[in-house]
User: What shape does this take?
Amino acid sequence: MFSEEEFEAIQNELKSRISLEDSFDYNGLRTVAGVDLAYWQKNGEEFAVCCIVVIDRHSRKVIGSRHFSGKIEVPYMPGFLAFRELPLVMKTAELLENVPDLFVFDGNGYLHPRHMGIATHASFYLNRPTVGIAKTYFRADRKTDYTEPDAEAGSFTDIVIGGEVYGRALRTHRGVKPVFVSVGNGISLDTACRLALELTDRESRVPIPTRLADLETHRAREAELGKEAAP
Assistant: This one.
């Protein structure tokens, strides 16, 4: 088992390779995947299921969906969530028939103490651009809050820590709570927010790929719990 110091060393090495610029032609972006995980406890041990739902960016139709469940081997340590979740993310991604053009995570990327949230960390293994879109705000330095955007859809405020932009609070619908967008890797913050707005429909303030992945994780978790309860 790695120590926190070893985990941090890995993060710092990967951090030097983060790109905050677009690595693709936006007009050519066709498939977008949403990624989410759900957890449960059994006999004092922790398990999770990861679901990845792939949609066609233009039609918004689901063209692929896979999930994979397993035991969580790494204990919770603040700032090192990716080490807990990445094994299941990669197992699930391997089940996809075709690799999506871009992955959107229900979580953070650059909005992290070392800029290495799950969306960023996973990008180096998925070899695709990634975005983190969280439903709740994470204080990367444990103290800096965000400023509420204006009420209009598309309004945003930058999350600035130590003079650096870590992410954005983005209003996807008028009057609803903002989501928190941060670059994963291989994409600019402007493009990440553009994509978030484009892929959010009237059903939710959360973009379609991660909303569908969230729904799938809950269904998959209930199915796993049902198996355990069966005689």
Notes: The longest strand covers residues 31-42. The chain has a mean pLDDT of 95. The chain is about 30% helix and 25% strand.
